[in-house]
Amino acid sequence: MMNYSEAAVRARGLTVRRADRTVLRGLDFAVPPGRITGLLGPSGCGKSTLMRAVVGTQAKVTGTLDVLGRPAGHAALRARIGYVTQAPSVYDDLTVRQNLDYFAAVLDPGRARRPARRDAVVRAIADVDLTPHADALAGRLSGGQRSRVSLAVALLGAPELLVLDEPTVGLDPVLRRDLWELFHRIAAERGTTILVSSHVMDEAERCHRLLLMREGELLADDTPDALRARTHTETVEAAFLHLVDEAAALQGSTR
Ligand SMILES: Nc1ncnc2c1ncn2[C@@H]1O[C@H](COP(=O)(O)OP(=O)(O)OP(=O)(O)O)[C@@H](O)[C@H]1O
């Protein structure tokens, strides 16, 4: 088990209520630094809610949730976390560069910061391989390219933790593969911690570590290899189904 002080994110008894329902139920997990942790589970299991709790935008959070050594939501964490929601937050009537210029000015305002902002924008556009499209209107880009603009915005402040909510949804296999390669590059070259959600189980194989969720509960917090070995299965998808059956059997026997 990981040392508490080493974890980029550490949850103990994390519980979230939305409206009148408990949507996360007493989760305990740790996200290791500089690695890619996949948050996987079916639609509606609570992945977005967990991510919102980590970035500090979710109400009615109880239990302990520490992020980069501070309680989630702490003001000092804002500049240290990049968050990409499911809906790309991109202005269609601005070019890629103008979008990035705008967000850079919000993040790092002031005339004196202009040269630093310009460098940060050029770097973020290059990071996501959009340099040839820097002057294209965002509204004219493909779905995959628009997702990469959102990712570039999140990379602007060189965050230590990147939280990506289903970044590959709706993308074709080639674009999905390219994005995953980019995530690995960011983690390996910069030591950035990445927490990325997906409901596509084959993406689990691309993660260093996995949090498998179902109906607001955590089924597993492990590496893909350990999960497969423990459940005697060939794929993470089969391991997930095995754990679902196991949990159902346990519930049946305690009734
Ligand atoms: N604004 C809200 N008010 C009340 N309940 C909500 C609200 N938003 C989501 N929920 C409920 O919380 C639960 C978890 O939703 P969440 O969006 O976190 O799941 P998810 O795993 O991210 O799903 P998806 O993969 O479809 O995005 C769901 O049962 C959902 O119906």
Automatic annotation (TrEMBL):
- According to the lineage, what is the superkingdom? Bacteria
> Which intervals of the chain form a coiled coil?
none
> What Pfam families is this protein classified in?
ABC_tran (PF00005)
Alphabetical list of Gene3D superfamilies matching this protein: P-loop containing nucleotide triphosphate hydrolases
Residue span, ABC transporter domain: 9-240
Q: Which UniProt keywords apply?
A: ATP-binding, Nucleotide-binding
Cite the CDD domains for this sequence: ABC_DR_subfamily_A (cd03230)
Instruction: Give the Gene Ontology MF terms in alphabetical order.
Output: ATP binding
Protein name per its UniProtKB record: ABC transporter ATP-binding protein
